[in-house]
Specification:
This protein is α+β, with helices and mostly antiparallel strands. The longest helix has 25 residues. Bound molecules: glutathione (GSH). The site of glutathione (GSH) has 15 residues, from helix 1, helix 3 and helix 5.
């Protein structure tokens, strides 16, 4: 397998977590978002939406981290990252979708650049935009986690990692880079602490990736 990705990209990070949880090894192909490598014609041929990650597996190219992670779950079901029960699966997918559909897309690099350039916002203005959507999403996830009395604290669902944890942990990393205040979300932060200590999560952390350098700060 080959994973086209960037160390600080949260969609890449969540995919690395899933690969590691499944015990799958892969070749790390860096796509330097900070150098605009995703905007080249060569990369457009690899990923038509010009985003990371892209996974090459079983002779095919897969895009969209959510689709990639669901593919991994279907083809490599052990260990499972989704519960068996349909309602439980829907709950896990809902938490992942809050991050993947409601939070990340509006804070993506291309959106931040547009806000900066078209609406002439400085770093504080862009951070205010990011914070707005992070606050809405994390408040919802915090409420969902707080209301779930069956859940073991430190995991989004049940007593072990699921797809939801991969999405939440990776997006908290992104939020903290942009100085979103995480103190109102203790249940979310307990997930980061518990899961972050597990090897598959720790090994997927942006700081441990081959393309991690102090000057590479773009997502
Ligand atoms: N929905 C896609 C988003 C992929 C994506 O856009 N990733 C970001 C990095 S986290 C990216 O490549 N951004 C480039 C840009 O916005 O120009 C996924 O989940 O894979």
């Amino acid at each position: 397998m080959k994973l086209y990705n960037f160390h600080a990209s949260s969609t890449s990070y969540r995919t690395r977590i899933a690969l590691n949880l499944k015990g799958l090894t892969y070749e790390y192909i860096p796509v330097r978002l900070d150098k605009g490598e995703h905007l080249t014609e060569a990369y457009r041929k690899i990923n038509p939406m010009r985003g990371v990650p892209t996974l090459e597996a079983d002779g095919v190219r897969l895009y969209q981290s959510g689709a990639i992670i669901e593919y991994l779950e279907e083809v490599y079901p052990d260990p499972p990252l989704l519960p068996k029960d349909a309602v439980a699966r829907a709950r896990v997918r809902a938490i992942a979708a809050i991050v993947g559909s409601d939070m990340h897309p509006v804070n993506n690099l291309r959106i931040r650049n547009f806000i900066r350039d078209t609406y002439r916002q400085d770093a504080d203005g862009v951070a205010a935009w990011i914070g707005l959507w992070n606050k809405a999403g994390f408040a919802a996830i915090e409420a969902i986690l707080s209301e779930d009395k069956m859940r073991q604290r430190g995991f989004c669902f049940g007593s072990g990692p699921t797809i939801a944890d991969a999405f939440v942990v990776s997006h908290v990393f992104s939020a903290q880079r942009f100085k979103t205040d995480m103190t109102p979300y203790p249940e979310v932060m307990a997930v980061v602490e518990t899961c972050g200590a597990l090897e598959p999560f720790a090994d997927a952390h942006p700081s441990r990736q081959p393309d991690a350098q102090p000057q590479a700060q773009q997502k």
